[in-house]
Amino acid sequence: MQLSPLEIIRRESLQKLRDLGINPYPAEEFKTTATIKDIINNFEDFDGKEVVLAGRMMSRRIMGKASFAELKDASGRMQIYINRDEISSDDEGTMYNTVFKKLLDMGDIIGIKGEVFKTKVGEESVNVKELTVLSKSLRPLPVVKTDADGKVHDAFSDNEQRYRRRYVDLIVNDHVKETFIKRTKITTSMREFFNTRGYLEVETPILQPIPGGAAARPFMTHHNALDMPLYLRIANELYLKRLIVGGFDAVYEFAKDFRNEGMDRTHNPEFTVMELYVAYKDYNWMMSMTEELLEKICLDTNNTSEVMIGNNKVSFKAPYPRVPILEAIKIHTGFDVAGMNEVELRDVCKKVGIDVDETMGIGKMIDELFGEKCEHHYIQPTFITDYPKEMSPLTKEHRTNPALTERFELMVNGKELANAYSELNDPIDQRARFEDQLALSEKGDDEAMFIDQDFIRALEYGMPPTSGIGIGIDRLVMFMTNNASIQEVLFFPQMKPEKKAPSVELNDDEKVLFEMLKKVNKILLNDLKIQSEFSNKKWDKTLKGLTKHNLAKVSNTDDGLFVELI
RNA sequence: GACCUGGUAGCUCAGUUGGUAGAGCACCUCCCUUUUAAGGAGGUGGUCCUGGGUUCGAGCCCCAGCCCGGUCACCA
Questions:
Q1: Which nucleotides in chain B lie less than 7 Å from some protein C-beta?
Q2: Residue A76, φ and ψ in degrees, nearest 5
Q3: Alpha helices (runs of H) in A226-361, residue ranges in sequence order
């Protein structure tokens, strides 16, 4: 392994700690008596009292016999003051001069016992009486500093490094941690909302024999013992509905779903959806519930119902406008497409500049019209309702218009945040819709749905009228935390693997050169270069390779540059 | 999948027609007892993403590739 000079110094410090009888990785429990946040928030209660804290040393300012350092625990950051004569028991001041000043580094995890006080400059601090090494850090952390004006210097900002080493990102970038704390606040808030109403949180299979409930390309895997293919779920909808058939009135699941499709700023191959199904409700009820839920979530996480998303101020205060999709298309394109046949609709698409082809049905074209011409206008939360039947195979036919369905999507900041239906519970209609999908897939749509016979069988036993919703949790977190990229709200976004470390073995060129050198033992550098017949670049690289492996050495003597074996 | 921009020290970044690889912070040595992004002085530190090529000479030019990011395509 190739170590940088900074890493070598730290490993030497590690050994020196051991030589002093200090275990750099002690096993004992370290009992703390407070958190940094507690102390800062309730300073008067702590002032003058003894506390025990543990955390990571994030900076250090050494001034002779006294020093200041910054300690960071899970709750916050605080200054500590360390005086040589107070933490050292011997005359040499070993604990201070050697351990603290020389052998500890930024990033080390330490425990301290000391007295809370405020410095002359007015900063809350702890005057350290005892210092304990809890874990030595062998790699240097990026040093991020914030000046008096709040300006950040040398931020650890390379996205590739931040995502690949999220742990470092979390250590040095406090705002990143905030995002993930908010993410948990959001899901906690939702659970509270549902649990208060008596809804049951459940778990359903991730490995499915038929990837149903949505139209998307699945990840495929294989079960060895059963010798059968299995798919990672693209949705859990059909399983949750089976539970409604089984007699639960309301079930919900926070589900990781997996879709084998392109990745971008708003798509990760695995993502989280909260799906909820409530019996005896319809999509109107679901709209009311959704706006109430989102207002609560926003208040719980941001203490206000308004948030900035990019340059837009968005209010989650209920209620939200409800706009039928055909109405939206009329508003934003000027065309009333209600009742149009496929030919007429294709004509409209061409007029507004949307590429169409023969495989596109009415549903697909309406979807395109909305997506291209309308979607981006809906910045404030808006329910878009009553989608055409063709694009909604799991949705109940509209109570007043058989061409439409009782479906809504919630648009926020021009993006889809949720999708909900009055669920189709007529098993005969459901079978017919699946067969329509099959026809579409034969027409060339490789994402049309598979037919799940057992799901239809369940419906045949009878499912109460039910409304269901799926809310994209990653997108919701992006909105609530004002992040434009899904990678900022996932701890570990999907990445291509890092390149492998260079091999420790000699490559072919190095082997050739090594063999030549073995024959002569020592030779003028230029002679060997000529003998090797390598290009300049290759020569340089190969010789450096040999010296790095400690097989050869270049020496500069009065007689010239020599290469010799070691 | 296509195109565009990037990849240089632990971090953030410079690097001139192609001519000895730089700065700040970090690190090391020394001075300093309540300091404030970063007190003073001196020093160490490099696979310039990888592999080929052109050239007397490549961080820079050419070719191929890898990885991040962006735009588009795809995305019930």
A1: 1, 9-13, 24-29, 31-39, 44-47, 49, 51-58, 66-76
A2: 170, -165
A3: 237-245, 283-302, 325-333, 342-351
Beta carbons within 8 Å of A73's beta carbon, 6+ residues apart: A32, A35, A36, A53, A54, A55, A56
**Do A474 and A484 touch, CB atoms closer than 8 A?**
no
Give, in order, the Cα–Cα distances in Å from A248 to each of A151, A244, A276, A394, A463: 54, 5, 12, 20, 10
Which ipTM did the prediction report?
0.92
- Closest nucleotide C1' to the C-alpha of A367: B76
- State residue A91's pLDDT score: 79
- pLDDT (tens digit, 9 = 90+) per residue, A525-537? 666 666 666 665 6
* A214 DSSP assignment: S
For strand B, is any atom closer than 7 Å to the CB of A501?
yes
| Arithmetic mean of pLDDT over chain A | 89
Q: Pick from A241, A257, A231: which is nearest to A202 by CA?
A: A241
Q: Say whether the CB atom of A143 is under 7 angstroms from strand B.
A: yes
Q: For the ranges A298-312, A355-369, A547-561, which has the lowest average pLDDT? A: A547-561
For residue range A307-358, list pLDDT tens digits in order.
999 889 999 999 999 999 999 999 999 999 988 888 899 889 888 888 887 7
CA distances from A245 to A358, A434, A465 (A): 39, 19, 10
Residues A532 and A563: their CA atoms lie apart, in Å, by 13
Please give the nucleotide, over all strands, whose C1' is closest to the CA of residue A157.
Answer: B12
3-class state of residue A399 by DSSP:
coil
Mean pLDDT computed over A356-382: 88
CA A142 → CA A64, A154, A158, A162, A178, distances in Å?
Answer: 25, 8, 11, 11, 19
For the residues A469-485, what does the mean pLDDT come to?
A: 95
The answer to whether A173 CB is within 7 Å of strand B is no
Does residue A328 approach strand B to less than 7 Å at its CB?
no
Average pLDDT over residues A59-84: 93
A406 φ/ψ angles, rounded to the nearest 5 degrees: -90, 80
How far apart are the C-alpha atoms of A412 and A145, rounded to whole Å? 36
Cα(A3)–Cα(A477) distance, integer angstroms: 39
Q: What is the pLDDT of residue A503?
A: 47
CA-closest candidate to residue A331, choices A319, A323, A322, A343: A323
Q: How confident is the model at residue A222 (pLDDT cuts 50, 70, 90)?
A: very high
pLDDT of residue A547: 57
The 3-class SS string of A234-269 reads CCCHHHHHHHHHCCCCEEEEEEEEECCCCCECCECC
- Spatial separation of the C-alpha atoms in residues A380 and A374, rounded to whole Å: 13
Q: Which two tokens stand for residue A306?
A: 């308004």
